[in-house]
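pipeline: protein-struct stage 2 | run 1193 | Peroxidase
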Amino acid sequence: MADLSRRRLLGGGLVAVGAAGLAAAGGGAAVASRTPERMGSATVDPHGAHQAGIETPPQAFASFVALDLADGLDRDGLTGIMKVWAEDIRRLAAGRPALGDTEPELAVDPARLTITVGFGPAAFDVAGLPDRRPSWLRPLPAFAVDRLEDRWSGGDLVLQVCADDPVVVSHATRTLTKNVRSLATVRWVQRGFRHAVGARPDGMTMRNLMGQVDGTVNPAPGGPDFDRQVWNQGDPEWLRGGTSLVFRRIRMELDTWDELDRPARELTVGRTLSNGAPLTGTEERDDADFEATDRYGIPVIPPESHVARARPRTADEQFLRRGYNYDDDGAGLLFAAYQADVDRQFVPVQQRLAEHDALNQWITPIGSAVFVVPPGFGPEGYPGDTLLG
Ligand code: HEM
């Protein structure tokens, strides 16, 4: 074992699996031949036009960490945090210990670790650049369904730390927060999980804790819809290749949900529980037919069902959902949506759902935060360098 670790540290055993590689490795054979060693040593490149962790096929575990900047911190201080994090990210993503890592052994198998950095509204005041703050970077409007708690909301900075190994997530989270302790304090940490690697065929859509197939209608990584929906196209120029994160902690009322029979559950969402097919189809990826009626003239997919209310009314109303389950302190969904423009894409959909959605009886938003996610950075750069540099 020691030998194996040493060889890996020297680079010999590292298997680089980029986002595309994993997406392509969908077949059963790839799963069967995967050894735990190889899964742990898989890496995702942290550099590029976009930050890692958004287009990356979702890892099994995530921690979302919000931090508040220390009073009196200025632009140099904020830039300093980003430079420290850039170095930490570079090292940890490659399976190398961070500088001064107190638990270097925990860095060896990064298990597709990605760390994505975002700025909350106040970061622009700290940086002395309030004019550069995107107009949509502010708390969401209050929705009638909200029961928001401070302890799950807001933040000046966010880290989305994802990996296929929860020990890696924990170590990376501690390293990054510890290394900037005097400059920023942790406001909240929210931990989430999906299915373990190897538990199901790669590429299969996850299930949430209501048992539903969740994430079917989403832009395909690398495709034109993804580019259009998720990445800022250069307005403003510093944000080209960046995006926004809407993060909501949504509690599920599982005890009352349990009282519903199966057909009622399926009518609430508009899709089947068995494979997530629309109620008008048989396969998960079949197009939903919202016009179809039964022999009594009643719509097959109820107009008040979650998907009928959530589906886009305009081409703008689309975004990437990359959420995680949680079951500490209640159960629910760490809903994470990425879009180029919060006001244009996300808010109209959330507004419509808040007005009416059959699912609302069993879900309650209890946390909310909005962040801008700066573009990707290069081997010499850091998150936000196009803004702060
Ligand atoms: C679709 C569950 C919250 C937006 C779905 C689907 C499920 C689901 C099972 C169908 C499969 C799929 O396409 O993913 C949930 C649960 C939620 C929740 C359990 C809360 C705990 C939200 C929120 C939004 C949202 C807050 C946005 C404000 C959407 C959209 C779709 C969708 C846009 C795709 C609609 C379509 O075009 O067919 N959701 N959802 N969901 N949901 Fe949610």
